Each structure stands twice: as structure tokens, then as C-alpha cells.
User: Fold Phenylalanine--tRNA ligase alpha subunit from Pediococcus cellicola.
Amino acid sequence: LKEKSLHEISHADHLKKLDAVRVNILGKKGPLTEILRGMKDIPKADRPKVGELSNRVRDNITEAIEKRRSELEKAITEKKLADEEIDVTLPGKPVSQGQPHVIQQIIDNIEDLFLGMGYQVIQGPEVETDKYNFEMLNLPKDHPARDMQDTFYITDEILMRSQTSPVQARTMEKHDFSKGPLKMISPGVVYRRDTDDATHSHQFHQVEGLVIDKHITMGDLKGTLETLAKELFGDRFEVRLRPSYFPFTEPSVEADVTCFNCMGKGCSVCKHTGWIEVLGAGMVHPNVLKMAGVDPEVYGGFAFGLGPDRFAMLRYGVDDIRNFYLNDVRFLTQFSKKG
Ligand code: FA5
Assistant:
């Protein structure tokens, strides 16, 4: 019996089979239990011998089963590990990486340039009050120039800012001029009830710039704008300043850049003018300084507000501003920082 059992145990090739063998030999109906049950029919004198022998056989078999069980379990674990093995020498799957939006790339570029010239970068709220968006910028209620920027109103007093210029007023108010001049830029999103077309969006970006100090001149403004144009467009495009009107600057100018699409010849993108307007600027109006608590007899400065969306169109030859807002990844990945 022992030999037969040990043979069956060593040939059990998986755990279920081993268990069946165990039940067959050691179970209630197994041969060993049968022998022990039949003890009463054996002569008394032989009983201890038979008992001892059958116990030994049972111990041997139990031991063999346990040994075989751990062998089988070990084999299972080894197979599992072999299946899960990772070949670290295989080439990895390429992971597609995200990147800043092309307009954010232009804004980052502008920030780097101005930080290098000692400007601070300041953020302002997109939900603004009428006071900062208009009144503090020399645009009292019912001023006709308010129509220049058709505005989304939330209540009579609260609106979606139509320009980044309110950040000028907020910053001037807080600035301590005894500690030095004020030089800041403020990038952000603005909103207007403009009808969307190739160069207009109802939601777009602006970067405001402001410098207040003693003895600032129009020459400082011109030099700053030329540095900016060179940084962003290189020497490929011409920049022209033309007289304009903003209630918060006097005198005021607008800067145009050669239309990238027709290089000045005239096309539908530039409405046949040969130029694309990219920014408004001027010398800060004395009323604006006064309202912010700055003495216009002592201090003066320049301000500008540029449209990075238009800058991106010019730099990359994109003929419709709406492409920036459709968020088609095939369009956006063309402007990878690496490429
Ligand atoms: C202003 O918003 C003034 N706050 C700029 C300014 C600041 C002047 C400081 C003087 C001193 P304007 O409405 O022209 O000006 O807009 C400025 C720039 O924003 C434009 O030159 C253009 O580049 C961009 N822009 C204006 N409207 C849109 C639009 N609907 N979609 C895309 N870009 C626009």
C-alpha cells in the first residue's frame, strides 16, 4: 500500500490531482482507515504491531503529500514569475506629451522679454467692476468711447473685463512710488461682444504694459515697442505707428505690422490695407494718474495693450484667429516648442 501510494503521490502533476490522491488513501473510505476500523478482528497480541505499522505508513504518506504539495506550489509561483518577466531592453512605447497652447507660448515669450527688462508680471480679475474697467481709465458713464469696446455686462456695475487696462489702475493705486518707479506687464483673457471673423474673437488675450516714473517720454515707448517687435517677429516685418485715440492715453498710437498673408499687398485677412493692427499705446493721461492718487506734475509714463492672438497669427502665418479656439489637436501640435 505504501509503495503504491508513494508512486501515485509522486505522479500527481497538479494540486487538484494530489488532493484526490490524498482523499483516496487517507479519507474515511480509504484503505488505511479500513485497516484501523478492522482492528477488532485482529488477534489482540498482533494489534500493537499492526497499529504501529499503519500509523507509520500514514505518517510517511502524509509527509510525502506535503512534500509534493510544496513542490507543486513552488512550480506554480515560478511559472507565474517567468510569465511576468519584463524585458527592460525592449524599446518603450512613445508617450505623446502635452505642451503649452501656442498663445501661451507667445505670452511666455513676452513675459521673459519684459522680466529681463525689470518689469513685474501682475494678474488682475477677469470679472471686473465698471469702476476699474472704465471710470478709473477716464471713461465716465455715458462716455461715447465706451462704444469702442462692446462689453458683456453681468449687472450695471459688474462686467467681464473688455481690456487688461483695469490692471493699470489697480496697480498704480497700490504702488509705493517712494520705493521706485512702476514697471509692469499684465497678461490675461478679455471679453467683447465682437462678431467673430478672421481677426476678431469674442474672447481673446491681451498683455498690458505700464511704466510710471519721472521723465518718461514717447521715445521710451517707441524704443520699448521696437524691442518687442524685434523679439517676436525678427526683421521680417515692418512696424508702423499711427496716431490714434484712447481716453486713457494722450497722445495715443496704434501699431500695425505688415500683413503676413499678402506682405503688404492687400488681401481679405487685412481687409485690403496691407497691415494688421496689433496694439494700442500712448502716454498715460493725467486724469488717470490723478484718479489713482499719482501726482501728474511729478510722474508720467506710457502704457500699451497688445493682442498676443494677432501676434501668433503673424508669427506663424495663421489666417484665421478662430483656429486658436477650436482646440483641434492636429492644429495645435504644429506649434510644438521643440519643433
Ligand atoms: C485696447 O483694448 C486698449 N486697452 C489698449 C491700450 C492699452 C491702449 C494701454 C493704450 C494704452 P484695442 O481695443 O485697440 O485697445 O485692443 C488692443 C489690441 O487687442 C488690438 O490691437 C488687437 O491686437 C487686440 N484685439 C482687439 N479686439 C480684438 C478681437 N476681437 N479679437 C482679437 N484681438 C483683438
In short: The chain has twelve helices and nine strands. Residues 149, 163, 165, 192, 194, 200-201, 204, 206, 246, 249, 252, 277-282, 303-305, 307, 309-310, 321 surround adenosine-5'-[phenylalaninyl-phosphate] (CB under 6 Å).
